Structures are given as C-alpha cells and as structure tokens.
Amino acid sequence: MKTGQSPDSHLLITILILIVLGWLMSFSASLGHFNSYSFVLKQSLAIFIGLGAGLVLLNTPTYLLKKYSPAFYILTLVLLAAVYLPEPIGRTIKGSTRWINLYFYNFQPSEMMKIVMVLFMAGFLTRQEKYLKDPWLVLFKTLIVVGAAAVLIINEQDLGATIIITLTALSMLFAAGSYLRQLIYVGATLFSAAGVFVYLDDVRSKRMFDFWQEDLWTNTSASVYQTKQALIGIARGDWTGTGLGAGIQKYSKLPEPHTDMIFSVIGEELGIIGMLVVLFAFAYIIGKGFNIAKHSLKNKRKYSSYVAFGICSWFSMQISVNISMNLGLIPPKGFTLPLISYGGTSMIFSIIALAILLRIDMENRAEYYRQKQYV
After folding, report:
1. Which of 141, 148, 180, 254 has the most CB atoms lying inside 10 A of its own CB?
2. DSSP letter for each residue of 348-361
3. CB half-sphere exposure, 35, CA atoms < 13 A
4. How far apart are CA 279 and CA 235, in angstroms?
C-alpha cells in the first residue's frame, strides 16, 4: 500500500490483542461445558471468517459501502424474517427465535443488522441534508428505517439488540445536527414505551424489580443469582487473578460464563489488572474511532464520519452495558462483550466493523497526504 494508506499499527495491534484474549477467555470460560472444544473450534472459525472479511474491507473504498448499503439493509431484513421459518432453517434456542441454521453454526441476523444499520443510516443522513429545514420529516423517515428492523428483532425476544440498534441510529441522527429537540421527544417516548414493555413482561419485570428492591446479598431470588456469582468470581480474583483457566465459578455457579458474563471470568482469572487492560484497550479503540470520525468530517467526508461515529457509539453502548451488568450495576441482560464473548456472528461483525473503521482512517490519511502535495 502507498504511504499514508496502511492501517494504523497501534489500533490494529490493540484490536488483535483483544481478539486473541477473547479467544483464550472464551475457551477458558467454556471449560465447564461438556462440549467446550466444540465451542473453541466454532469461535476459531468465526475469527478466521471475520479476519478474512476484514482484510477484504481494508481494501474496499467506503464509497462502495455507501453505494450498496441499501441492498445490505434489505438483505438483512430478509434474513431477520427468515429466522421465523420452520426448522431446519429457523432455529429456536431457550425460547428465543433468533438464528438461521447453517449446520456448522447458528447465524444471528440481528448482529449483522448492527453494522448494516450504521452503513445504511450514514448514507441515509447524507441524502437527507436538503431536508434539514424540516427535521421532523427526517426523524419520521428515520423511525421507519429503524422500526422495520426493530419490529422483527423485538419479536425474536431480543430486546438488547433492539435497544442497541435503535440508540445507535438515533445517536447518528443527533451527530448529523438540527435534531436535538425532536430526539428529546422521541427519546422520552421510546424510554416510556420500553418501560411499559418491561412492566408487562413478567420475566423482565421480575428481574428488574427483584434487582433493585432488595439488598443483593440477602436476596434469594433466582433473578439476582447470576449477578452474585459474577461478583464472587471478581472478588476471588483480587488484583492478579487465580490464573488463566484456574477460575471455579464457570464450572457450575455462574450462568453463561462464556457469553454475557465473560468479564467476570476475566476478573476471577486475570484479576483487576486483567479487567483494566481490557477496559483501557476498549477505551483506546473507541477514543481513536471518534477521532477518526472527527477527521473525516474535517475532510468533508460526511459518510465516513457518520459510519465511524455509529460504530463507536454502538461499541460504547454495548461494552458499557455488558461490563455494568458484570459489576452488578444493572440487571443481567443478553449483551455480549465485543471481540471477547463467545458468539460466532457477533465476533464476525465486530471484526468487520473495526476493519471498516481502519479503512476510514486509511482514507483520511491518504487525503491528508494528497492535500499536502498541493500546498
């Protein structure tokens, strides 16, 4: 590649370190399952697919992503609808219908929609600039775009993905400007609607109220059992941890140790130091990503700026929620930790999203060098 067009080495190395750490920790956390080697093989396959796709995207101009983003959006909606087809196509696990059976692993279209929504919304916002004087119209169109995906995902009993996708799209709308008053109204309405939805759902409301109403350690409800076991594991780890693979909570005490609660396994086996390494690595990636968005905007590359902003907003929300529930700050919910948790589809599209971020940075620096040649 030409000067100024190679990936940022520090950012790339940080991403690769998290991927390797995630592979090790998902293997360690799955040791309590009888098919742990099956888990690690599937996770390895997902990482290789993600890295392969990421390499392709590193060499793909962002204008092509803008051009084909409407087709990606429609395709993902079709895949979201396909999960409702009867087996062997659709797949229901633990009462939730979220997967398409690919035989060698289960594909989750809602994870694909996270990055596709970012790509589509970025193009949508650049096309709507002529309507900035009528922000209600743009907001209405945005709600149609988001609502089409949200209706399909919420019917899959995946409230977490619905919230992440919706808030990411609305944060991108905010970044585009001129929509603050409208977003306050819509945000209050959506927050109220989410509250009513949780209240009317017996399982979710019990989990929520049990978590907040009583002292955590005297509460005998199953709703807070997962949180207590996560905190016990973190306390066992102290500063330096029990050692990689030496944790005991994952064997029988801690539910979902390899997915939602993997951060507590890191705390037990690698200690507070290990948790801080993960936190600082994510903070570096997200901080760098927002800077990339800012530089794209300076170069008048609004599509790239919106994409970078959307990716960083999505990662910021998902990482914050996952770590908060592992630390007992909020009730447990099905949010994976990007690049770390076990989950093939999540891993693939997290790597793809970060590859796009690296590509945007490469184009920013190529533009900078091009401009300097004419100074």
Report:
1. 254
2. HHHHHHHHHHHHHH
3. 5
4. 18
